[in-house]
Amino acid sequence: MNNQKKVAVVILGWNGKKFLEDFLPSVIQHTSPELCEIIVTDNCSTDDSIQFVKAKYPNIRIIQNARNGGYAGGYNDALKFVDAKYYVLLNQDIEVTENWVERVIEEMERDENIAAAQPKLRDYYKRDYFEYAGASGGYLDRNSYAFCRGRIFNTLEKDEGQYDDVKEIFWATGACLFVRSDAYWKAGALDEDFFAHQEEIDLCWRMKNMGYKIIVVPSSIIYHVGGGSLPQGNPRKTYLNFRNNLMMMFKNLSSSSLLFKMLWRFVLDGVAACHSVFKNGNINDFRAILKAHFSFYVAIPSLIKKRRQIPHPSSVHLTDVNILVQYFLKGKKKYSDL
User: Fold this and answer.
1) How far apart, in Å, do the first and last CA atoms of the chain sit?
2) Fewer beta carbons below 10 Å: N end or C end of the chain?
3) How far is it, in rounded angstroms, from Cα 201 to Cα 223?
4) Span 64-103, pLDDT tens digits
């Protein structure tokens, strides 16, 4: 008898017992056992996360990774042992709501060309506001800066139903990423060199380069704490975001625009580094950005090999929006104003 579930909800944790105590009950309550299997996977935690799950929820399957490969490596290691049509990569600091899985899967089942999707993310603490990590769907501007319907840089909009339509987007959040398992592996899975941050954007970009669609389904609502592993302002987070964004651009941009856009991005990063010192007095972010660039330069030979494996059809374009100009010069803080 085949006991395969259509959907595997995979929660990746690292020293997150408190999150599992707080949020695993909502996942169990609102996730259909007929449709889904809930799996907790662990990146070599040193707390008693796994002991807690075993004792409190003995029927939940546990995958203990042999290493801490970060978000990317952790999921790649675990998903090799998961058999399902759809994966849901779910952060450990998320509260879900009724029918959160069904509403997304229903939309994905309508079109086999939809490779990935996300629900609507609201802030766990300010519950009528969008949450930073994905809001109501993600995009990249012409310089590869990420922004969302409901979030531009650090400005979060109040959710008043203004972005409640199912819509094709550029990237879906890694905080709660629905993805077809066959497309996940066909696209090459998550890039483990990213470790954490923006690896889901890179994966979505590769999927779009292959002709797949990415969507947001706002009728599915989740609440995200955010910053559970690395809070905003942490130099390690700054380093990963700047380095990974450069790696993502180098891998996925079309050949015709690669050189110009990379050189221009170097200039913009230099401005950001100087701004962090001379206006904010933040020497740690300056060092993190500098370190990110050196790490990127060292990684170029391996990135060339990866780039050769990715199709770059001319039909895949970033948005024409210049989010820096719109936000800082024109004062447009809302997605609807762009």
Assistant:
1) 53
2) N
3) 20
4) 999 999 999 999 999 999 999 999 999 999 999 999 999 9
State the helix-helix crossing angle for 255-278 and 283-308, rounded to 10 degrees: 170
**Domain 7-224 fold:** Spore Coat Polysaccharide Biosynthesis Protein SpsA; Chain A (3.90.550)
The answer to whether the CB of 289 falls within 8 A of the CB of 269 is yes
Confidence (pLDDT) at 311? 78
Question: Is the sign of the CA dihedral 218, 20, 237, 129 positive or negative?
Answer: positive
**Residue 164 reports pLDDT greater than 50:** yes
What size, in residues, is the chain? 338
User: Burial of 138 by CB count in 10 Å (0-12 exposed, 13-18 middle, 19+ buried)?
Assistant: buried
Torsion from C-alpha of 280, 285, 287, 293, nearest 10 degrees:
-120
**Backbone dihedral region for residue 79 (phi beyond 0: left; psi -120 to 50: alpha; all else: beta):** alpha
* Domain boundaries, given as residue ranges, for the chain: 7-224, 235-320
Instruction: List, in order, residues 6 or more apart from 270 with CB less than 8 Å away.
Output: none
